[in-house]
Specification:
Elements lengths: L3 H6 L7 E4 L3 E5 L7 E7 L14 H17 L6 E4 L3 H4 L8 E5 L9
Antiparallel strand pairs: 1-2, 2-3, 3-5, 4-5
The structure holds adenosine monophosphate (AMP).
């Protein structure tokens, strides 16, 4: 197993855990881009959104529902952004599906 997020899920690499249930885990991004920057990941290794199908719709919805709950918990009342980077052009650097939850400051659009 050579996946850094699988190692975090397994407790082999430390992380600031923000949420966990049987399907997903959320932890603080080690290099935060906003005052609140969480990563919500499936415990099952899935490389990217491009490696999912309709059968994963429940899990994909759950990842976003957890993002919404974390945003509320962090009182991101003026808004936040959820991002899934996919593949090289999408800027994905870790090959384990993850939803970024970014908040705590205004953000611009479009991204770079
Ligand atoms: P992406 O570029 O969309 O693949 O996002 C990967 C994210 O994982 C980046 O924001 C990194 O800062 C973050 N990251 C990498 N290693 C760790 C780690 N050990 N603990 C927490 N976040 C990490």
């Amino acid at each position: 197993m050579d996946c850094i997020f699988c190692k975090i899920v397994a407790g082999e690499i430390p992380a600031k855990k923000l949420y966990e249930d049987e399907q997903v885990m959320a932890f603080a991004d080690v290099n935060p881009q906003t005052p609140v920057h969480a990563l919500i990941v499936p415990k099952r290794h899935i490389v990217s959104l491009a490696h999912t199908s309709r059968e994963d719709a429940g899990l994909l919805g759950h990842l976003h529902a957890v993002a919404s709950e974390l945003a509320a918990k962090h009182e991101l009342t003026s808004g936040y952004r959820t991002v899934i980077n996919t593949g090289p052009d999408g800027g994905q650097t870790v090959g384990h599906l993850h939803v970024h939850l970014l908040g705590g400051r205004p953000m611009h659009w479009p991204p770079g």
